[in-house]
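From the pipeline queue, job 12 of 40. The input is one protein chain; the requested action is below.

Action: predict structure.
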Amino acid sequence: MRVLLISNLYPPYIIGGMEIYLQNVVQRLSVTGEISLITTAPFSGKASLKPKLSREGNVKIYRFFPINVYHQYKRSNSSVLKTIWYLLDVYNIHTRQVVRQVLREEKPDIVHTHNLRGLSISAWDAVKDAGLPLIHTLHDYHFLCRNSLLLHGKDARFCDGNDIVCRFYRPLMRRLTGSKPEAVLAPSQFVLDQFKQAGFFHGVDLAVLPLWADDPDDSEMGTSYGGSLQVLYMGTVSRHKGVRYLISAFLQLRDDNAQLEIVGSGDRELDECRLLAQHDKRIRFLGFVSGDEKEKAFARANVVVLPSIWYDNSPVIIYESLARGKPVVASRIGGIPELVQHEYNGLLFEPRNVGDLAACLARLGNDRELWNSLARNAKASSARFTAEAHMQGLLQIYRSVTTNCV
């Protein structure tokens, strides 16, 4: 089967777990058929406006810069430029032309789109113009909210669609998306429900397809509790990730031997978090790590915390933590409770509630029996989230869609 995937970012341009997930999917699909990918690249002169073909193994990758004021990987802090960027991103005609060109060259049997922010929904029209079956995976809330997070303003309030901009944006996107995909997937039921309630995708097949994390060969290493509470946050340090609430909660702990490691790059929020933690030597900022350094960070930890304040979809860090037998303490929000079951493989707390989070950490610091139970169940619960299960489900959907569209 010839599959063409489309996504705004792809390694080495990585903002979150979605890019890593997509790379893993591409690698596995390349064993089953002919795979090609359309993605973006930063502006590097006129030549970058045209799709440039490269190869990774037997995968064809087309990269181009969709005409706009900046590339999503190199976002601007200018409110004026951001406004222009969003306007051009609603429907980018240049993207439609590039996708149409690649479709003519590759002649795929099916097209599977992922994040389209930075490419725009115009990619779908190119696919439909070619008469090809289309599948889309929802990784965030791009079609519901202009910033994809359902959060607005400095106070990060939740978007209900009544924001002055989203009041126009959401109906427009509902009309542009229509019922164009044959199937829409999401790793959590929560995300699908948000789109259904907002009136999207009438008559379209909807399906939940959980993600996965590979179980490293040395995943049994470092799964014992050790001498004290070792807390790990791994991910981007941005406002919606809620890291400042984790730091505030950790500062309430009276255990001098407890440690908090914050692993990941960030924006201005990272500076704010460093300032908040500057007087506590128990808190360390390690920056972005990968490979062996990432595994060492997991091995040192006996609990992983995900303090999200947005409607998180299905965070890859949870799959990674469970696969390594690490209990997860996480916000009770979005699709997280579909993965973390309170007092089974982790603990849930109310988002933004510093006292609630601090109490969860204190429980794990004082109750080794509880930690042992959560750690065993974390490892056990990861058994259903495997690459094999995910890929079988994905290929089954591909076959179903292509058969029905013949």
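Job complete. The mean pLDDT is 94.
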